[in-house]
């Protein structure tokens, strides 16, 4: 009888999946409270090592599957916002944590970018023959 209980317990443990730890949430602008789209988030372990990375969705949402119990932090970055590190999240049992994170809305001035281009007109004969460009101009490949 005792043996059948052990076998049943082992089979039950194999059939019922362990509940995993999940960290899910949203990243918001601290002033407008609008979702921050495309924010890069790193999941850091207690030693500060990046374990996983993702980018927030179009509504600022994200979800991490936590690999094992322990302390974790999030490092959040987005162009125009200062990099932010969350307070620690402690996973001591299997559960889902839902968080709302705010990025400080302190505009960061980026350096000016100057783009310089030289126009080169290249006409491909098959495009001219198909009528996509007018044949009245001569090829001016000035490389």
Q: What do these coordinates show?
A:
The chain has helices at residues 2-15, 125-129, and strands at residues 21-29, 40-44, 50-55, 61-66, 70-77, 84-85, 89-91, 96-103. It has 143 residues and is an alpha+beta fold. It has a domain at 20-103: Immunoglobulins (Immunoglobulin-like). Strands 2, 3, 5, 6 and 7 form a five-stranded antiparallel beta sheet that branches. It has a three-stranded mixed beta sheet with strand order 4-1-8, with no helix packed on it. The radius of gyration is 27 Å and the shape is elongated.
Outline:
This protein is α+β, with helices and mostly antiparallel strands and about 140 residues long.
Task: Summarize the helices and strands and which ones pair or pack.
Layout: H1 2-15, E1 21-29, E2 40-44, E3 50-55, E4 61-66, E5 70-77, E6 84-85, E7 89-91, E8 96-103, H2 125-129
Parallel strand pairs: 1-8
Antiparallel strand pairs: 1-4, 2-3, 2-5, 5-6, 5-7
């Amino acid at each position: 009888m005792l043996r059948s209980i052990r076998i049943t317990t082992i089979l039950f443990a194999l059939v019922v999946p362990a509940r995993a730890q999940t960290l899910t949430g949203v990243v918001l602008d601290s002033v407008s409270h609008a979702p921050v789209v495309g924010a890069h988030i790193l999941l850091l372990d207690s030693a500060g090592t990046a374990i996983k990375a993702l980018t927030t969705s179009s509504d600022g949402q994200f979800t991490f599957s936590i690999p094992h119990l322990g302390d974790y932090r999030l490092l959040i970055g987005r162009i125009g916002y200062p990099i932010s590190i969350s307070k620690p999240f402690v996973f001591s049992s299997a559960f889902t944590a839902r968080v709302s994170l705010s990025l400080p809305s302190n505009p960061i001035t980026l350096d000016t970018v100057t783009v310089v281009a030289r126009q080169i007109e290249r006409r491909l004969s098959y495009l001219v023959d198909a009528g996509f460009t007018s044949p009245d101009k001569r090829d001016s490949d000035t490389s």
